[in-house]
Amino acid sequence: MAEHKGHRPRRAWIEFIPPVCAGVLVLTTLAIVVFIAQRGLATFVVDRVSPLEFFLSSLWKPDRPVSAGGPALGALTFILGSVLVTGLAVLLAAPLSVMTAFFIVEIAPAAGRRFIQPAVEILAGIPSVVYGWVGLSVIVVFIRERLGGLGFSVLAGALVLAVMIVPTIVSVATEAVRSFPQEAKEAALALGSTRWQMLRWVVFPAVLPGLLTAIILGMARAFGEALAVQMVIGNTHTIPHSLLDQTITLTSGITLDMGYTVIGTPWNNALWSMALLLLLISLAFILVSRTIARRGVLR
Question: Could you tell me which of 219, 282, 225, 280 has the C-alpha nearest to residue 250?
Fold first, then answer.
């Protein structure tokens, strides 16, 4: 009895630790959001830059002297670069990843399943700089020699990103396909469906919300990637007119310019505005994926 009473204070402390940890994480998240929002809004509140100029102008001359008209802070090139590279990467990676998820769960033999999924998951552990280096040594050279141009291009960035987001999409999509009830599959087969008809007309529509969630999470991963894309995309402040043109993304612009700015200057504030835009886009991706997942559960 005495030993039991002696353990009670320790148990109380252990039960107290998880909510404290959760609270610390929530406060940390809120602090980061408030900090980025405060710095990001300074472009519009302190420097009086019009939101229309920031979002719709491609003129980026943040160090232009006042005598020449003052800083020009149009971020359209960065935004279009991020959208193009991410969109093309998702177009390349999504079909490949979804087909791989169906193959792992429904088609591959047990021995192959034990090999394929870990092989895909290894891709998630490779550092971004390694992806960028491989892209710089292989993809950029291939594009330059086979397709023309300098090699540094939207296409090179999209190919590198496509490989990087495959593990994210495959992992989530595999769990979505695996969650489909075995009894429903057997019922479809018992009604005369072939294996492919069962996968196409029964399993695929049922797990589609989970597949869309996987693709959106992959898209969020691609939108926030900086280093690997920066190494192969060229980083020129021009709007691309073909997949072989160079451009720049929001993340590349921030990492390249952050070392040349002084805190509180319009240039520095504009970079924080780009960071705030990235944060809002990431939050939008999370909200959309959670909405799709919730509707899929309710259905």
Answer: 225
pLDDT tens string 15-41: 788 889 999 999 999 999 999 999 999
What integer pLDDT is reported at residue 296 of this predicted model?
Answer: 64
How do residues 137-157 score in pLDDT, each as one tens digit?
999 999 999 998 899 999 999
Would the pTM count as exceeding 0.70? yes
